[in-house]
Every structure is written in C-alpha cells, then in structure tokens.
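Z., the sequence and structure:
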Amino acid sequence: MPRILLVRLSSMGDVILTTPLVRALRARHREAEMVYLTRPGFAPLVADHPARVEVLTFDPTSEALGDLAKRLRGRKFTHLLDLHGVTRSRLLRLLVPGQWRGYGKRRVARWMLVHGKRDIYGDSVPEAERYFEAARDLDVTPDGGPAEVGIGAAAAASAAAWLASRGLGGGRPMAALAPGAAHFTKRWPTGYWEMLSQSLVAQGYDVAVLTGGDFRDEGAAIAAAGGVNAATTAGALGLQETAGVLRAARVAVSGDTGLMHLATAVGTPVVALFGPTVRQFGFFPYRSPATVLELALSCRPCSAQGGEVCPLGHHKCLREISPQMVMEAVRELGTAEEPRA
C-alpha cells in the first residue's frame, strides 16, 4: 500500500491547485495513506477535502526543519512529492531519505517571457496539471475536474450566520468581490471596485467584499459604495468560512489571487482580472466557469508574481479594464446559474 507525502507549504492559490492531484491519487489508490504537509494557515484548504488526507503542519517560526524531518522519517513514506520546489523543500529532501519527485517550474520559459517577451513555453499546461509530474510513479492523470476545497459543517454554519447578520443573499443574487492582492500591480484600482459595487447593487445584487486585515479600509470603502446591500468581511472569517461565502455567491470578481482559485474550488463562476501576469504562467481559473479580462499590451507580462510598482509607471494593464467592462462580464457570467445555498 502506498504511503504518500505531498509537500506544499504555501500559498493559498498554490495549495488549492494541488487538489486535483490529491483527488486523482485517492481515486487511483483508494487505500493509500496520504499525508499533506503545509503551513498552519493553509491547513483548512485541505483539512476537509473529500479525498480524506491527513494534514500535517509546519510553522518555521516555531519548529526547526530538522525536527520536522525527524517527524517525517518515522512515517516511512514510499512516495514523497515535492509540490513546492523551494529551498526549504529541497533541504527536506536531503533530511528525509526516500523516493522524492518534483515537477518542472518552467523557470527559463518564465524568465524569457518576462524579460525578453519571447514565448518558449511550447505548451499551455495549467499549474494544477504540472503538479502531476511529481506523481509520475503513481499512475495518475488529471480527471478534467476543477480544484476542490471542502467546507466543514462548522465553517458552513459560520458563513451562513455571517451572511444572515449582514442581510446578504436572502432574496437577491449575491456577488463576491475580492479586491486585495499581495502585490500592488495585481490590484485593480479601489475607485473602480467602488464603482463596480455601486453598479452591482443597482442591478439587483447583494455584494460581499472579501478582504483581510491589510485591506480593511479599502474593503469598507467598497462596501460603503454599495450601501445597505453590501458588507465587508474585513478579515473576520477564516479560509473555510470565506469559501462558504463564495459558495453562496452567484458570481465572484477577483484579480490573479488565491481568492480567485478559492471561488473556482467551490464552484462559483469567476470574472478574473489579469494585469502583470499571463496564461502561460499556469494560473488562469482552472476547469471552471470563468471569464478572464486582460489587455493585449506589449509590456505584459512584466513580472511572474506582480510587483510594488509598474515598471513603466502607467499600470495600463489594469487601469484600462473599466468597471463597465467588468460589469458586462458579470452580467454574462452571473446569469449562468441560480445562487447556491
């Protein structure tokens, strides 16, 4: 019986995109022991996955890598999948002997596209399917389904209670907005989000603005633009609770962020706004109803993950995607389904 360790320490979107592999492994190896190693903050993304994986967590601020390795060596895994490919996971390979496998991160192709504007990728394999390269000894292939995040009963109840306390989604369809991003160049202007919030409410939607503590003020302003039919989470909900709010939405609007992938993982259609990053990197919405808005600019892509300033100073890649363009995409995508409970 295989004993499989999957290692992906961060971040939100990357962890979510490993879940098609998790599902495929469970379908092919029903009795296998499957253990997923990640940081504590991302554990909820896999804790209630239908594939039934054991979740181990590693916090580098409180545990030495050597101590983690000692924990893992005792488990005697037959297959160790490095789905991260960073210095820490490479060191773990040295400290935990076994049959380690990784995947190709296309670093050269990515560098050439960003810095030379030459596309040498030669394929259009999404990141979720690149992870399968690490499982090449386990006879699995993508099943064509989307990413998948389970929502526990307690989290589902908390999400429903939050929506009810804000008066959202009772008799009107709901749109979920995710305006935050770790890097400035991935952020659509706050003023545009405010205009979109106002337009959505005028068109009969309730609006849930999903923000963490770092975007509390922006989230409050966007919700205020929508009036009494809009509210912001302001960091009050955990990952599974946020997933519950997304699942209740008819449509979500997001940049190239983890919340975009979380929406796809609970089946909510997404309008995705892509600026500095492009399809070739592998992070477009995966196998789910989605509309991607992007502009054909010669300066794109300007970075692999976004940056703190636009290299050319104009940020046209997102500034020239207007609220009207996004609203039209919401109308087209948001009519595809009725809201989910």
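Confidence is low (pLDDT under 50) at residues 337-341. The CA atoms of residues 109 and 121 lie 5 Å apart.

Let me know what you think.
H.
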